[in-house]
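Run log // design_07
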């Protein structure tokens, strides 16, 4: 028995109809297929989003949140945590909200800081750039107070009728001598971030080990400073209770010497009103007996406006220069009549500079916390008597080192301090311009110079009013 298959004949119309159905179905699928992105966090899929921008916005917001956080340590997102894969799916939509929640929960952060480097040496890691700049500004303000607040600087205003004035102080410049660099860094442990107050203390003091000294019988400030190899200024600064150099056995002195990491150099101008002592005019009279005198006119103080340029290093004066001086009220001289016969030991009342080619390095005044009783000067090494007189003292004097006091036998006395050597003796009569010693740096002195004082009737006077 034979089986016969009946052949199927497909007509052209049927084929066209089938192809049309296929194309239509494909178009339908394509029309309902969505393209989106699969988000991978540290290589692991966490969801799908409609666009990469959604994730990038979330990462930016998280970074800003971390930067603005009120915390002692800053945190930052780890780099390269997020990647994307292109995805297409039939009738499926991404869930942006779910993906962003998973992203928020899985993001990793790490602590960061700013490394403070001074002179090539790492000092500390602080919270951020703002903290570093704040610490550096605190250091500047400590050694140059008021430099950052120009509104506190008052102009000098002189009232001639009341003879009063408020001095002005203008900080011209403040700079840190060392090279300071700040470098953003990633850190392993939040404990690496230093406390700003501790960093400030280290920069301004060097965190020295505290040293003390117990005063013994016979001690003096200068003696202790020399013995313990510290500046007398350190002793005064650390022990403000000391008055008139008075110390007694058993007193404990703080002699800790700071060694700041940063050194701040500042330049300022101080303008103030100073008193001009009245000059003394001595006139000879045949009507008055030898050795007698008579004041026929009392002197009157004058006033002058003086501006000084001060250069300081960590608040300590290293340079002083008088840049201007204007007489506001001229002094009236005191007129004294004396006998016509002048003995060799009696001064003329007119003083010569005790140093040739003189240059004043420090003026008399109380501007810097302690009274500087006279003026300091440098120039020729030979020290000369400023006027005729009798040597009243020649030898070692506390604070002054080798010193000479000359009595000019007319009410005036002059003092010459820090000499290297003395060439006159007590009781010796000297004339104006006569050599009396050699300039040195003995006693409480930081360098070779002459310290010069003038007294009239026992009262300290400003030498610049007479020289």
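design_07 sequence
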């Amino acid at each position: 028995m034979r089986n016969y298959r009946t052949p199927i004949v497909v007509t052209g119309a049927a084929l066209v109809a089938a192809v049309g159905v296929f194309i239509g179905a494909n178009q339908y699928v394509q029309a309902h297929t969505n393209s989106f992105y699969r988000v991978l966090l540290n290589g692991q899929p966490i969801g799908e989003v409609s666009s990469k921008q959604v994730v990038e916005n979330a990462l930016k917001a998280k970074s800003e949140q971390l930067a603005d956080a009120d915390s002692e340590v800053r945190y930052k997102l780890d780099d390269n945590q997020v990647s994307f894969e292109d995805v297409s799916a039939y009738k499926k939509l991404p869930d942006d909200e779910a993906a962003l929640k998973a992203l928020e929960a899985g993001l990793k952060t790490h602590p960061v800081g700013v490394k403070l480097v001074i002179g090539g040496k790492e000092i500390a890691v602080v919270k951020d750039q703002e903290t570093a700049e704040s610490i550096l500004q605190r250091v500047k303000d400590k050694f140059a107070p008021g430099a950052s607040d120009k509104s506190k600087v008052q102009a000098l205003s002189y009232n001639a009728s009341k003879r009063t004035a408020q001095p002005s102080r203008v900080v011209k410049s403040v700079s840190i001598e060392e090279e300071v660099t700040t470098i953003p860094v990633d850190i392993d442990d939040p404990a690496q971030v230093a406390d700003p107050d501790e960093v400030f203390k280290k920069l301004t003091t060097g965190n020295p080990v505290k040293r003390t000294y117990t005063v013994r019988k016979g001690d003096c400030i200068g003696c202790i400073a020399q013995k313990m190899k510290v500046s007398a200024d350190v002793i005064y600064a650390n022990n403000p209770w000391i008055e008139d150099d008075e110390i007694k056995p058993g007193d404990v002195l703080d002699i800790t010497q700071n060694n700041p990491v940063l050194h701040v150099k500042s330049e300022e101008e101080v303008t103030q009103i100073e008193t001009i002592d009245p000059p003394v005019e001595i006139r000879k009279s045949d009507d008055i007996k030898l050795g007698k005198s008579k004041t026929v006119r009392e002197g009157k103080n004058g006033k002058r406006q003086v501006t000084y340029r001060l250069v300081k290093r960590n608040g300590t004066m290293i340079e002083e220069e008088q840049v201007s001086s204007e007489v506001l009220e001229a002094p009236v001289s005191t007129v004294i009549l004396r006998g016509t016969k002048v003995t060799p030991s009696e001064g003329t009342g007119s003083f010569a500079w005790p140093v040739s080619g003189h240059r004043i390095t420090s003026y008399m005044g109380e501007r810097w916390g302690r009274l500087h009783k006279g003026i300091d000067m440098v120039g020729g090494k030979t020290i000369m008597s400023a006027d005729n007189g009798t040597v009243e003292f020649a030898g070692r004097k506390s604070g002054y080192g080798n010193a000479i006091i000359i009595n000019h036998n007319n009410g005036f006395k002059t003092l010459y301090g820090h000499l290297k050597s003395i060439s006159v003796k007590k009781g010796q009569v000297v004339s104006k311009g006569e050599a009396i010693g050699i300039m040195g740096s003995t006693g409480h002195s930081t360098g070779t110079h002459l310290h010069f004082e003038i007294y009239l009737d026992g009262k300290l006077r400003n030498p610049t009013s007479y020289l």
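The first helix runs from residue 12 to 31.
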